[in-house]
Design brief:
InterPro entries: DDH_dom, DHH_sf, DHHA1_dom, RecJ, RecJ_OB, SSDNA_exonuclease_RecJ
Number of domains: 3
Family: Belongs to the RecJ family.
CATH architecture of the largest domain: Alpha-Beta Complex
GO biological process, one term: DNA recombination
Organism: Geofilum rubicundum JCM 15548
Structural class: alpha/beta
Protein name: Single-stranded-DNA-specific exonuclease RecJ
Helix content: 40-55%
Shape: globular
CATH topology of the largest domain: inorganic pyrophosphatase (n-terminal core)
Length: about 575
Amino acid sequence: MEKRWTVLEKTDEALVDELVRTINVDPILANLLGQRNVTDFNSAKAFFRPALEDLHDPFLMKDMDIAIGRLNSAIRNGEKIMIYGDYDVDGTTSVALVYSFLRRYYPNLEFYIPDRYKEGYGVSSQGIETAADAGCRLIISLDCGIKAINKVKYAAKFGIDFIVCDHHTPGEHLPEAVACLDPKRPDCPYPFKDLSGCGVGFKFMQAFCRHHGYPEEELYEYLDLVAVSVASDIVSITGENRIMAAFGLLRLNTTPRTGLQSIIRIANMEKREFMLSDIVFKIGPRINAAGRIESGRDAVELLISDDESLAKRMSDNINVHNETRKDLDRLTTQEALEMLNSHPSEREKKSTVLFKPDWHKGVIGIVASRLTDHYYRPTVILTESQGVATGSARSVHGFDLYSAIESCSDLLINFGGHMYAAGLTMSIEHIEQFKERFESYVSRHILPEQLVPQIEIDAEISLKDINSKFFRILKQFMPFGPGNMKPLFVTRRVIDYGTSKVVGKNRDHLKLELIEENSSSIIQGVGFSMGAHIDKVKSGDPFDVVYSIEENVFNGKTSIQIMVKDLRFPH
C-alpha cells in the first residue's frame, strides 16, 4: 500500500539558532528538539537528563488528600482492603505495584483481577461480591472504575467504599466513590494528564509515602512496572511519563524484579539493553497473554513473586499462553481477511465491521489492529460472549474512533476507550444496524487523506549529516514513544553504490549500500520485507528513502546504519 509522506514543519529559525548557541547541538538536532517542545536550556536539561525530583506533587491531584485519608482510616481500623485491577498489562502492573508496595506497611490486603470472559472489562459484580465474602471494607480500583457508577453503588450495599484510580476519560457523571483519582477529570488541576493507570497508582503510593514520611526511594524500586505499563498502554512519552519510563528502563536494565527477569529470560533478551519497543513487542504481550488466554491473576502473581523457581514455572506457563495466543491471532486474522476478500463490496467501504461468534475474545483486539494495518480504515472486530456481541475497535491516524462509536451508543450495551482504540458490547441482533450506522458516520467524517497510511518525517537531511557525534546525541533522545517518536528522516536522490542485494531465507529483505547523488557519502541500510524493490534499486536511477538511524553491532564492531521505512522511485 502506497504511503503518504508528510515532512513536519520546521522549527522557527530563531529558536534553532538559540538552541545551537545555548546547548551546542547541530542545527538538524536543534530542529528536532524544537519539534518536541524543547525551547531553551532548562527544557533541554529536563529532556536529556530526566530527574525524579521533577515529578509533580501527588497532592495536586483532585481527591488525593481524601483518598489518603480513607486509606489511613482503613489501616488504622484493621480493615481488609481489596486491590482491584483490569486484566491487561496496565491493570496487572498497577495491581502488582500497589499491592506489593502497600504490603510493606500493611498486610491485610488481597487483590482481584476480573475474568475477561466471565466478567469482562472493569469493575464487576462478581468482584464486589468476592470482596464482600472476604470481609473487605475498601476496594482500590486501578486502571478502571471511572465509569463504574452502578458498580460503586452496588458495593455500597455491602458497606464497601471505593477509591477509584483511573486514567480513562470520565463520563458526564463520576461514580459516588470516596475518592476518584483521575488526571482526566475536568475539575482535576493535576499538571500532567497522560499518566498510565499504573502511573496513577504510583502517584497514590507516592502521596502515601509523603504523608507518612516513608522514603520514596523504596517506591522508586517499582518504576520498572510503571515503565512496562507506559510502553504497553501507548501513552505519551513526555512529562512525567518520560521521567518514569527512563528510570524504569534503567531498573529493567540493571536490577529488574524477579518476575520481569523471568520474562526477559523466556523472551531470549538477557544480553541486550532494553528499550520501550522491547516492552511493547516482547514483554507486554507475554504479560497480556495471561489475561487473554487464562487469567490475569497469573500475571500479577508472577510480577509480585520473589521466588526465582516459582517465577520460572509461572513465566514458562505464561509463555505457553503466549504461543497459544499467537496461534489464535494468526488463525483469526486469516479468517477475517478471507471474509473480506470473499465480499468485494466490503472492501469498498470506509470502515470494516466483522462478526464471527466463535472467534476467541482474547485476540480480537490484536486482529482489529492487524486489519487496520492491512486495509487502513477504522475497524471493529466482534465475537460472541455470554450471549452478546463483544468487540474491539481500532482507528487510523487522525480519525476519532470514540466519537464514531458514541454516535451509535443507543445500539450498545456498553462502550469505552479513546480516539484510536475502544471496546464495545451490543446485542447480536443490533450488529447489522450498528454496521450501517458506523459506516455512515465514518463515510461522512473521515477525510480522504486519512484513508492513506501516513509517514511523518521529522526532517530532510543529507547522508553526509550522519556521523558519530550526530548519532551519539540522537541516542539521548530515548526513550522513544508517542510524543517523542524515533526520528524519521528523508534523503532525496540516492543511488545504489553497487553492492545492494536481497537477503533472508525467502530473499524478501533488502541489504543496501547507498550513496547520495553528487556526493561521496555512503551508508549501509536494511529494508525488511522490501526485497521486491531490488530491481528498481539496482537500476541506477536515483530514488528517495525514508529511514531511522540505528546502531549495528556485528562481530564486536559497531557502525551506523539506516533502517529503511519506505522507498519512492521515479515514475
